[in-house]
From TrEMBL:
Coiled coil: none annotated. It holds the Pfam family Beta-lactamase. This is Beta-lactamase family protein. Residues 10-388 form the Beta-lactamase-related domain. InterPro entries: Beta-lactam-related, Beta-lactam/transpept-like, Diverse_Enzym_Activities.
Length: 399
């Protein structure tokens, strides 16, 4: 895969990303791995499969697996109303803004369910993508401050979220959201464990995911890659820690973030939608479990039928506005459908997602193929890295 290596090197040389690590597996065998750049300034060490990255929304697939374990155990139903588990979500209302700017709410005719949360059709949002008036309410509660150190717990954040109106009637559209953080709280209540304790006992330890955490242990800090953004001249610059005097981080586009959110003060805030750090080696084990229909190295995590259910498109023709993941959405990730033929090199039924700091993965069941690409930079929508990486992998395996 010399052309792939040359391309990945070129992105470093062009200053598009500070460093990266790529891993590809086919039919349970390593096909390709490559690291370039430096994990940290001052350490002349390129990334490897054990370099730790802020996985952000790569957390969602793990949360979806945890939810489905509880469904299999009979402790939870996909059709359970959210308010049955968290009563604070009783009596939710729909937010509206008139043309004159007048705000109003009305009772929702449909209560959000576990299925709605899993598919981002709950009416909950992130407070980033509008309408501005509703985003402001999320910002007042500081619910959009996901990537800054905090002393909050997941329970406290979800209690705040429950006081806000929904963006739309559940089931009427797809909107990327804090739904998975809510699911994290559901897991805690139903299981009687903290989210990390549940993850560790039922998913991470059985799969041997030894470097996946909500807060990076101090002894592993030298393996955590540095976080970057772009300055006004589109040059890479390192993201600093939180400014302790002002309490502010780095602001780019809609996002405020700091480099230390994963190391300072987040031991109690287990964001089920965006909180985990992980390595390519760890996440490969998780993805191989999905590809193996729920089992890895003798450990059964989920049944084959449940894996199949997770990998179906559950959102119909709703637009999935985060591109590069197929035109459907399952439980925790995007799904490639017939609509994507000719535009996505992966096969129908492939799944994929990534994190806001430009981590990315996909699984192609037909090819028995797994691809992982890890880097740490935001924003990245202007970069073709993910699409080019995927395209070049398929070009090499298909000739």
């Amino acid at each position: 895969m010399d052309k792939l290596t040359d391309y990945l090197k070129s992105t470093i040389d062009a200053g598009e990303v500070p460093s990266l690590y790529a891993l590809v597996s086919k039919k349970k065998r390593p096909l390709y791995s490559f690291g370039a750049g430096k994990v940290q300034e001052g350490l002349n060490k390129p990334p490897s499969e054990t370099t730790i990255y802020r996985g952000a929304s790569m957390t969602k697939a793990i949360t979806a697996v945890a939810v489905m374990q509880l469904v299999e155990a009979g402790k939870l139903s996909l059709q359970d109303p959210l308010a049955k588990i968290i009563p604070a979500f009783t009596g939710l209302e729909i937010f509206a803004v008139s043309e004159s700017g007048e705000e109003s709410t009305s009772p929702t005719p449909i209560a959000p369910t576990i299925h709605h949360l899993l598919t981002h059709t709950s009416g909950i949002t992130y407070g980033w993508f509008g309408p501005e008036e509703l985003d402001a309410k999320y910002q007042e509660k500081e619910l959009n401050r996901l990537f800054l150190p905090t002393s909050d717990t997941l329970e406290q954040r979800i209690d705040q979220l429950a006081t806000l109106p929904l963006k739309f009637t559940p089931g009427e559209m797809w909107d990327y959201s804090l739904s998975y953080d809510v699911l994290g709280r559901v897991i805690e209540i139903v299981s009687g464990q903290s989210l990390y304790a549940y993850f560790d006992e039922h998913i991470l330890s059985p799969l041997g995911m030894v470097d996946t955490h909500f807060e990076v242990p101090q002894e592993k800090a030298n393996r955590l890659t540095e976080l970057y953004t772009f300055d006004a001249d589109e040059n890479l610059e390192k993201v600093p820690p939180l400014n302790r005097e002002t309490g502010s981080g780095t602001q780019r586009d809609f996002l405020e973030f700091s480099s230390d959110y994963i190391t300072e003060g987040n031991a109690n805030y287990h964001s089920a939608g965006s909180g985990l750090c992980t390595t390519a080696a760890d996440y490969f084990r998780f993805l191989q479990m999905l590809l193996n229909k729920g089992v890895f190295e003798g450990h059964r995590i989920l049944s084959p039928d449940t894996i199949d259910l997770m990998c179906q498109n559950h959102t119909g023709d709703f637009p999935i506005y985060l591109e590069g993941h197929g035109s459907g959405y399952g439980y925790g990730f995007g799904v490639v459908t017939e609509k994507d033929e000719g535009t996505d090199p992966s096969n129908i039924g492939s799944i994929s997602w990534g994190g806001i700091f430009n981590t990315y993965y996909w699984v192609d069941p037909k090819e028995e193929l797994i691809g992982i690409l890890m880097t740490q930079v935001f924003p990245f929508a202007q970069l073709p890295l993910r699409a080019d990486f995927k395209r070049l992998v398929y070009k090499n395996i298909n000739g």
